[in-house]
Amino acid sequence: MKILIRNGRVIDPASGRDERADLAIASGRIVAIGQVTDFGAEREIDATGLVVAPGLVDLAARLREPGRKHQGMLESELQAAAAGGITSLVCPPDTEPALDEPGLVEMLKFRARKLSRCRLFPLGALTRGLAGEVLTEMAELTEAGCVGFSQADTAIRDTLVLQRALQYAATFGYAVWLRPQDAFLGKGVAASGALATRLGLAGVPVAAETIALHTLFELMRITGARVHLCRLSSAAGVALLRAAKAEGLPLSADVSINSLHLSDVDIGYFNADMRLTPPLRQGKDRDALRAALADGTIDALVSDHNPVDDDAKTLPFGEAEPGATGLELLLSLALKWGADSGVGLADALAPITCAPVRVLGDALGSLAASAGRLVEGGVADVCVFDPDPTWRLESGVLKSQGKHTPFSFAHTGMALPGRVRATLVAGSVAYEG
Amino acid sequence: MLQLDAEALYAELLGGVRGLLKPDSVLVGIWSGGAWLAERLHADLGRSGTAGVISSTLHRDDFGSRGMAAGTDATKLPFAIAGSHILLIDDVLYTGRTIRAVINELYDFGRPASVQLAVLVDRGGRELPIQAAFAAARVVLPASQKLTLARDAAGRFSFTVREQA
Amino acid sequence: MLSRRNPQLNAHGELIHLLSIEGLPKAVLTQILDTAGTFLSVNDREVKKVPLLRGKSVFNLFFENSTRTRTTFEIAAKRLSADVINLDIARSSAAKGESLLDTIANLSAMHADMFVVRHGESGAPYLIAQHCAPHVHVVNAGDGRHAHPTQGLLDMYTIRHYKQDFSSLVVAIVGDIVHSRVARSDIHALSTLGAAEIRAVGPKTLVPGDLRDMGVRVCHDMAEGLRDADVVIMLRLQNERMSGAMLPSAAEFAKSYGLTPEKLALAKSDAIVMHPGPINRGVEIDSAVADGAHSVILPQVTFGIAVRMAVMSIIAGNEA
User: Fold this and answer.
1) Structure confidence by residue, pLDDT tens digits, C27-74
2) SS3 of residue A227 by DSSP
3) Which residue in chain C has the smallest CA separation from B60?
4) How many CB atoms lie within 10 A of CB B26?
5) Which of A202, A198, A180 is nearest to A189 (CA)?
6) What is the DSSP letter of B80?
7) Among A305, A347, B27, C41, which residue has the fewest nearby CB atoms (within 10 Å)?
8) What residues of B are in contact with residue C10 (Cβ under 8 Å)?
9) How large is the ipTM?
10) Angle at C224 between CA C223 and CA C226, to 5 degrees
């Protein structure tokens, strides 16, 4: 279908383009950006007053499929992604069963393609069942569509196994996506500090992250593996990351919308919506994460979407399941960070568009050339949104089955900026609002 | 507004109480106004020991709506209640609910042989079948007005009548 | 983020739940201590009952076993003329997989007016208070390592009884403070009531440096911790600490941090010794001290009933 998106503010962080222009789409590709006349569009989207940006790329969202517990998860969560302006999404392998078999990956990709709302790029399990003992068939899994290998939140305790896993992945140039959290020191439920002490909650010290980072960096030096660090949480972690990047280690990193905006005091009176992993740390850690995202030390901002249901959240804090909904908040929270930090709208979009694509690199195949960007001849994955503060996150608004979020209007009293008006994937409209 | 001479009424009360008291009666003043009266009566009658003080805090029937009253309970009964003839003293007798609560409280200590009541002012408006054996004055006040006994630093009594909001 | 009103207080600042001593104004603590004094005298009467909670049902929900604490709450509620129902949840519905809130909902349907809750997870009573009906009141009988407010209050009543003025007091709390809900409640109460100095005494594994954030002086040396103290509160040493690699043995703990008459001599000559109970004789406290002249451990128990009567009667009388 030929679609013309007229008169929007076209922003492409990769090229620095930020201008009023039309965007013409045909056969799933962008055919022209600029003053477009005589296009003969079958469909016109009036983007006056709106921003036309590349479709968002979210490097961390749990869809819970395959899974035993909930019905219709893939449908609802991909719909939520589209409503959030997300056109490409990476999901971790901690599904039920874990994504350690090519057949499971193929089925997941097939089902997602049929729903045609969002491109799905699964991470394969690094070890069978995520048990940290036996390696998975990484070549087979890559052929089935995995873009990297991960242990999700289950750290490998045996350093020998970890070294060998990195070594094997490095043989083929596969990226390994790891959460830097020590299995033993990371057992608590809230970040160590004055608040956890006062509330009597078992703490996770910063050392849980820094010790894991030191171990990973050392093993990277030995094996030459390429690693993406998932969900940095501390100032000390950021400092180590900065030094490691300066040293030239093949590293990238992301931070979640939760760690970027919240700190441990938001736990308040044991609010289980703040039960997250990594745990929310102190204000100074949040400030360091913000600075690192601004200067590129941290490459990408992710939603860390986890659709936890009511039963798992209406429990005492330590028993509640960690996680929060995020797909429909990624854009707004990126814009809010952009406004708060003075980075500005265009630069606020880079960590959720072109930077995540750089992280994925060749794993995206031919898509790597144009995903996360608006370029003539490239794929027509587009997000059209209204940048002004407009919407209140209230129950009933979210398409995701995960309703628990720290950013609800009831909790914050603040409206969120950025409302997605249309999302296009491969030139077809996946969402309109 | 009604004017009451508390000191004059006290003199009446003293006379009335003298008539009611048996040799083995015990004086118990209802906190706070009744307790002041009982203290002065006890001295003026030349009795030994001290008058008792009793509070209705723990047996009030309006706990559900008014909640726990602040502060400590004033009840001090330095003698046996079981088998005693009690003369209760209070400043103002109105609905009768305080007296009901006080009697209940007394029973927590034991079973008295008899309980009588003498008050400075009976303002009518009873909501329970309670009566005073002696009242120095009988007045009628609208429900919106509150009658309170005060005692100054020199121990002199006075009444104030206030319109309640 | 929006500031939240303390869920323990209603819009008028009156106590409707007792969940933690943190965040309670000094006036509320004082009201409870003063009211406890009233009930102490009731406990000396022939008839030890008052009708304040007559017709009300108090449900003791103990997700962690504790016969002692449950018994004192039961006695307190009965002296207020309440009907008391004891639920040993550890063995029943939770074991069958019923969620905490489902248990509460079922009990509310049986017209519970007050829940006295002990739970292994910090924060559980807040969840209950958030989800129960407006007329229902919650008393925290101990949640995880977070708070044991009635114990904190009875400890304060005890200190006030023997020492009167908090502003000149040096209070040493000795033992496993990092895991202790009693210690946290004591620390908050002492701070609010204006104690001069609060010391946390124990090895680094049980008294980590970040306890300083609670406004206490951390001492790893027992002598330093006890010197010139007016009040010594000994905490029970639990066996889990040895299996969690925090201590090698009870014997070694006793050697460094057990309270003997010799170590007690470092405190003030009129110091009082307290313990929330049950005591481990010969571990955290020697028999000679537990049974000696400085010990006020048994009076604590008596005060505990009066304090719990005060708490229950105050909150029952206030509307949400």
Assistant:
1) 999 999 999 998 998 888 878 888 999 999 999 999 988 889 999 999
2) strand
3) C52
4) 23
5) A202
6) -
7) C41
8) none
9) 0.89
10) 65
